Amino acid sequence: MSKITDYNDISQSYDSVREPADACILKSLMESLTGKCVKDMDIIDIGCGTGNFSEYFLRFEPRNLALMDASEGMLSKAKEKLQSVPPSTNLSFKHAVLPNMPYEDNSFDAAMMNLVLHHLEQDPDGKSFPKIVQTFKEVLRILKPGGVLTIISVTPEQLEANWFAHLVPKNKERWHKRLLSHDQLKNCLSEAGLTLKSAYNTLTASYHPDHSNPEGPLSEAWRRSISFWGTCTEDEIKDMVQNVTRMKNEGTLQEYVDTHEKLGIYGALHISASKKEVQ
Length: 279
Ligand SMILES: C[S@@+](CC[C@H](N)C(=O)[O-])C[C@H]1O[C@@H](n2cnc3c(N)ncnc32)[C@H](O)[C@@H]1O
Hints:
Methyltransferase type 11 domain-containing protein, Methyltransf_11, 7 strands, S-adenosylmethionine-dependent methyltransferase activity, SAM-dependent_MTases_sf
């Protein structure tokens, strides 16, 4: 269960602000690292949300597609959305809270975790990530030998590259402790027994289509669609709204966005793929 975002509430509006960015890259990674086509795979979508990534994979008719999430609201939206299922696919949904994964050992060829890691609690110093390691150990258990885990996450550098993060410097520091760097992610995977095979920063797609809207931070609905805002205090939000309103009135708001936006350099997302080695 996320402590920073109320996903039961957000499930109603999630699909208007999120896209399954780079889903085709996940498919390529899964196929090249397992040597199988999706249609011959058993796949799990961990922290599936409203099923946007699963919807993409369903087109390729996987043998099994399992969706799991801690939010009943998100799961019920996913069920509504994924009504049209190819006859060759067995589709299933499960409510479960990570690190628990109520699935048999050696069940899946591929697992994906898209934008979920930052919801798992860690030590406040930001140096150790026990829940994440526990979760990866569970992934190792449910993957078949030779199976693949793909992860979409955001690195601290990519957080810095989001123009709006600079509006609340204290909150930005909180997120530096919450987000894993590439090396920290690699260490957590290795501690759990998974081998990192490839990692990319994607420059092309933003997962949030309205991300560059200069007046976005003034809207509560816009803020609720980005987890960053869930850890701000009320006073921080009040100060930020005053600042953004001032810049808007002075005509300097767009310049602020242009100065701080660096997604074109650091990319919006980090994509990695790791493998459960065949013993
Ligand atoms: C940002 S959303 C991503 C949803 C989906 N993967 C996507 O990219 O569209 C994060 C999801 O992780 C789920 N989540 C957060 N903490 C969780 C936990 N401890 N166990 C299972 N799911 C969790 C939330 O309920 C939410 O649906």
